[in-house]
Design brief:
about 750 residues, alpha/beta, 3-stranded antiparallel beta sheet
Length: about 750
């Protein structure tokens, strides 16, 4: 139905434009103004608008967020592959590739490898890691050597360390300090794997397409690309899988790698795909539910774009059925309810502590729904219930515990199946996706219907103006006197020079005032950047850590029993910054400032134009009235003509174009060196690059606007148009019968066209 209406609208639009052009009506001032007012676009632009709403993206995009070993793969295996252990699991954050999946009859995969720029960035970050490591090691060795010299001087040989011990302690300290930068540590690990692989970049192009006969066959081949020991794993940026699984129909799954990706281009791609998702599932193990790392990963999603829903999925919930929540309860469903309440309260406590402005919208989405507890093990048992002999050791162990602690529910096959379905909760997640898909379709249908209704309403209003114009024209030609109009034309020509002088003067005055537009634009810029420094703020965090020292006391009896080490604790202070919040602030500022400046500029320009039109209209009428014996000009005709001339003046629209530097395209919390480096880079970008660049753009906008205004001879445009309109009327009056017949034919044509207008 919608396609049919779209086709009708396109055909009607084409007929309307052909009618206007063939009758010369497209040149008439009143009709031009009505066309602009009702946004009657040409057929090409109309087709683009309709294509956008008709090209329904049927795929429901589902973003999966979760740290390594959170149970993402197990959840996806349950949701998509009916519990089969199909998807390869990432061993570490470094080996996790960005993975997308959608339905296809042809089993295949597309692999994107890192390019030369990516590899150079990995190598550079790896070198920075080594520099920090070597610096920390050198400093620690110097410190330990100094201690040894002091012990020697004071004859405390028993407390002295050997060269090997000092080397080991220095290396341990250096590794601990340098690995505080997850990004640099990941990049170093990645770079070592790349060097060990001994593969040239040029060789990879032959391996971007993977064909397979079955899903299992494809997954086997994928191990070379995403498996921890895979031949091409160090070079794999992202993978898109096309699989003939019924569970994938209507879906596109986006499975994301860890936070602070060592490769910025992949981090950018991950964030871009997440922004396009309709629903986000955050998978967090119930035993360590909603950790700091989870919150950092969740910070990638800011609630912009089309995200409709977000859910917290507590994975591995079977592990919670045998703990404190079980006390006094033998019904697993009731224990599960208790676990859900505990985890829900835990999540809300974490959310209440989070004050990051950019995350508040998403937090509200998460809080809308209760935590969903799931157990992939329970689902696997349910699907393979009749094949208990093939269950792995972990599944057997969980089953044994379920029978032991919940005997009434797991001694009978029927009740066991029902209990396992409740524990797995997979059916509920599937239903959520179905409901969101239906809502997405409804939203798309509403958008489509709204556009079509607006277009039809605009056509009706526009055609009414055309009909009124034709009717008025017939009445005017029938009732006007040619001699009167000739006198009006002669009077107008007599007054034209004086009118031009008045219009030129008023227009020049208006141009001189146009540069005042920079003040409201700069005010918008200052207002929008005001909160940046508060967001890009380093805070101090402290925590307690354990460390070992050599025990040289009496308890060690002069080292007779070998070296012993005593464990001590100390308070460590570190600088912390929320990189994700800063990045999101900059992205939202950059995306929003352009439209806010455009809106402000357009409001000012509209107000400025209204003022100019008013003064020019007043000036022309004043000149006209100074000639008491002349024919008076029509006020509405003058106003329409002035508006038509101003409508043709094009001032380049305001636009902010800039590329976010890779060093600030980060997420999660950064500490110490990384935090300070990021803070400085973000501040420099905002206040030394982006804001000055926008100030410069504002100056260019004002300058180009004034130049555009100066290049238009407004007086000539207005007065020539008025003169032409009077001359045309005289010609039509002198050929009255022919002119009226022509307009009456137009009446019939427009009436026929009106009857062919599509209905919403």
């Amino acid at each position: 139905m919608s396609k049919n209406i779209s086709t009708q609208l396109i055909e009607f639009n084409e007929k309307l434009f052909n009618f206007l052009q063939s009758k010369g009506l497209d040149q008439e001032v009143k009709i031009q103004n009505a066309r602009d007012k009702n946004s009657i676009s040409d057929t090409k632009n109309l087709k683009q608008d309709l294509d956008e709403v008709n090209n329904v993206d049927r795929l429901l995009r589902v973003g999966i967020i979760g740290r390594v070993k959170a149970g993402k793969s197990s959840l996806l295996n349950a949701l998509i592959f009916n519990g089969r252990d199909v998807l390869p699991k990432a061993a570490t954050p470094m080996t996790a590739a960005l993975t997308r999946m959608e339905y296809s009859e042809n089993v295949r995969a597309e692999v994107e490898f890192y390019d030369q720029a990516d590899l150079e960035q990995i190598a550079e970050s790896g070198r920075k890691y080594e520099q920090i490591f070597n610096s920390e090691k050198t400093n620690k060795l110097a410190e330990l050597t100094k201690e040894n010299e002091l012990f020697k001087k004071e004859h405390r040989q028993s407390e002295m360390m050997t060269e090997a011990e000092m080397q080991q302690l220095a290396e341990d300290h250096a590794r601990s300090e340098s690995e505080k930068s997850i990004e640099l540590a990941s990049a170093y690990d990645q770079h070592q794997r790349i060097k060990a692989a001994k593969i040239q970049l040029s060789e990879l192009q032959a391996h971007t397409k993977i064909k397979a006969k079955t899903t299992e066959d494809l997954m086997g081949k994928l191990n070379d690309y995403v498996g921890s020991g895979g031949k091409y794993m160090p070079f794999t940026k992202s993978v898109k899988l096309y699989i003939p699984e019924e569970g994938l129909k209507g879906l596109e799954i986006v499975d994301t790698p860890g936070v602070n990706d060592p490769v910025q281009s992949r981090e950018e791609r991950t964030n871009a795909f997440l922004a396009q998702c309709d629903v986000v599932l955050v998978v967090s193990p119930s035993g360590q539910f909603i950790s700091e790392e989870d919150m950092a990963l969740m910070g990638r999603v800011t609630g912009k774009n089309g995200i409709q829903e977000a859910y917290l999925i507590a994975s591995q919930t079977d592990s919670q059925l045998f703990g404190s929540a079980r006390e006094g309860e033998t019904n697993p469903s009731k224990v599960l309810d208790k676990v859900t309440d505990i985890l829900n309260a835990q999540a809300h406590t974490v959310f209440e502590k989070n004050k990051e402005q950019t995350m508040q919208k998403m937090i509200e989405l998460y809080k809308k729904h209760k935590v969903i507890c799931t157990s992939s093990v329970a689902y696997s048992m349910l699907i393979n219930f009749s094949q208990k002999s093939k269950w792995d050791e972990n599944t057997q162990h969980v089953w044994s515990n379920l029978q032991k602690y919940y005997r009434d529910y797991f001694s009978d096959d029927s009740t066991a199946n029902m209990a396992l379905e409740t524990l797995s909760n997979i059916k509920r997640i599937k239903q959520i996706l179905i409901d969101i898909q239906a809502r997405k379709d409804q939203i798309q249908a509403e958008r489509r219907q709204s556009l079509i209704s607006c277009k039809i309403s605009a056509y009706k209003e526009f055609i009414d103006v055309v009909v009124d114009y034709i009717d008025e024209r017939i009445d005017k030609i029938a009732g006007a006197d040619a001699e009167e109009e000739k006198n009006r034309l002669e009077n107008f020509k007599e007054q034209k020079a004086e009118m031009k002088s008045v219009v030129d003067m008023e227009y020049l005055r208006a141009i001189s005032q146009f540069d005042a537009i920079d003040e409201p634009l700069i005010n918008v810029l200052d207002r929008e950047t005001k909160a940046f420094s508060e967001t890009n703020r380093i805070t101090e965090n402290s925590y307690t850590e354990s460390y070992q020292v050599k025990d040289n006391g009496v308890t060690n009896l002069w080292g007779l029993f070998g070296d012993r080490y005593e464990t001590k604790t100390r308070t460590v202070k570190e600088d912390v910054i929320n990189a994700g919040a800063v990045r999101d602030f900059i992205l939202e500022f950059r995306d929003g400032i352009s439209s806010k400046l455009k809106s402000t500029a357009r409001k000012y320009k509209t107000s400025w134009e209204d003022d100019v039109i008013r003064t020019i209209l007043s000036g022309i009428r004043e000149v006209n009235q100074n000639y008491p014996n002349s024919e008076k000009l029509n006020r509405r005709q003058i106003n329409d003509t002035i508006q038509a001339v101003f409508r043709k003046i094009k001032i380049t629209d305001f636009d902010v174009k800039d590329q976010l530097p890779s060093e600030i395209n980060r997420s999660g919390k950064l500490t110490d060196y990384d935090a300070r480096r990021f803070n400085e880079a973000a501040s420099n970008y905002m206040f030394k690059k982006l804001k000055p660049s926008i100030r410069s753009d504002i100056n260019k906008y004002v300058k180009s606007g004034i130049e555009s205004l100066q290049n238009v001879d407004v007086a000539k445009g207005i007065l020539d148009s008025l003169e032409q309109q009077i001359s045309t009327l005289i010609h039509e009056i002198e050929n009255r019968e022919e002119s009226i017949a022509r307009y009456k034919l137009m009446q019939k044509d427009i009436a026929k066209l009106k009857s062919e207008m599509p209905n919403a």
